[in-house]
Amino acid sequence: MQNRFNSYLSIAHKLIESYKGAIPLAAFLKNYFSQNKKHGSTDRKQISHLCYCYYRIGNALKTLNFNESIKIAYFLCNSTPKEFAFLFDENYLSNWSEDVNLRLVFISKSYTKFELEHIFNLQDLVSIDHKNSFIKSHLTQPDLFIRIRPSYETIVKDKLTKNQIAFKEIASSCLVVTNGSKINEVLKVNKEVVIQDYNSQQIGTLIHVVKDNLKQPISVWDCCAASGGKSILAKDILGEIQLTVSDVRASIIANLKKRFDEAGINKYQSLVADISKPTIIRQKFDFVICDAPCSGSGTWARTPEQLYFFKEAKVNEFVSLQKNIATNAVNHLKKEGYFLYITCSVFKQENEEIVDYLLAASNLKLVEKRYFEGFEMKADTMFAALLKKVD
Fold it and tell me: Helix (H, G, I), strand (E, B), or coil: what is residue 302?
């Protein structure tokens, strides 16, 4: 058994040495396993877990060799040693605690160069409160959240219970289930439920403000629609809407159409458009949703390779893109219309500074802006600002 787990370490080491961050780690590992069919499900799970642990400590101990780094990473990312106890001496094992704070204290004393702040080495750009809690959250895989669509609450909960899929009810329409749960085999995804992070669902609180202040039917433009999650959320909250969706990528729009079909949304117009440039759209809208391309820094607990590979210079590229997209999208807003700016970033440049830029450059007033901090919920952290056109 020990030899087997040593082989996992060896494979993980080779994968980490060859991985350069050009594609998501999940895709890189999937490619490797598809080319190496000898690995069973347990092998894939263990090797992947080791790789993810390694990247979860970000830049904290880059100077150490792999064997030492992976030991520290595994210790910090797991509440028990499980099958890898053989890697650790008694000093480690006696200090293993379910409390990550105690594990961090032990590592800080054992490795004087270790500092929590180095896990997320761009913290000077971060404007949220509770920075230490946010940084520590990267040591844990976030939960899987689902949003129950209107009128399906009882059906969904009954199906999960019948199929013995454990769930925790966060709200009547928000459930958390174990990562890896086979909900696709039990539930009609997109029709009955949407797989959507807790704080992505919380954006709905700002959409409710729009509902309370505009008369139906509301014309809505989701200008960076991607997979259409925010459009489905808007439809579920606002009811009958005149929906337009756009994205710069034709393949994404094709996938969105398939998802809308599954969700029962058939009244909408879609187009491929680069909103960072003046568009051919002539229509003005009551409500514009701008879920802008961003660093994704509020979601790096799901993609911890970003902790390791992301470069600060990339932030400026996103900021330039965000300014162009937001400025062009605001031009399509009716008087008294609402503009919802969203990112899954924790960087002030992508969030508050973009809002300040829009307020200075456009006839907008701020209704509300806030961070939806996810680390206490094992969820993503997001930023959103609701603005209103005043003339």
Answer: coil
* pLDDT tens figures, 75-130: 999 999 998 898 899 999 999 999 999 999 999 999 888 888 889 989 899 999 88
End-to-end CA distance of the chain: 71
Of 170, 126, 174, 134, whose CA–CA distance to 153 is shortest? 174
Question: Tokens 């029709």 — which residue?
Answer: 191
What is d(CA 74, CA 78) in angstroms, rounded to the nearest whole number? 6
Q: Which residue has the tokens 């509902």?
A: 211
Cβ–Cβ under 8 Å, residues 380 and 142? yes
Residue 217 CA from chain centroid, whole number: 31
What residue spans define the domains of the chain? 2-119, 144-195, 198-389
pTM, rounded to two decimals:
0.94
Q: Which fold has domain 198-389?
A: Rossmann fold (3.40.50)
Q: Per-residue pLDDT tens for 53-80?
A: 999 999 898 888 898 999 999 999 999 9
